[in-house]
């Protein structure tokens, strides 16, 4: 009897998840039609030359990232590339 209950609850949860996704898609479509929904958008461009200049001047990666409004990993990624801009 315990397995039957678990199976039924699993099926109900799966159906509910499908309903949630359908409502979400419908909401996004309605928002797009209304011109409100634009999605995530394009990622910020990373000013490679500025990052390299600041790093050469002795500024740390965390400080550069904070001031430019980008992630620290973006700074490290630019500094790790072999071909400087």
From TrEMBL:
Domain Resolvase/invertase-type recombinase catalytic: 1-35
GO terms assigned for molecular function: DNA binding; DNA strand exchange activity
A Pfam family the protein falls into: HTH_7
Secretion signal, residue range per the UniProt entry: none
Superkingdom field: Bacteria
Family of the protein in this entry: Belongs to the site-specific recombinase resolvase family.
Protein name: Resolvase
Organism: Methylobacterium variabile
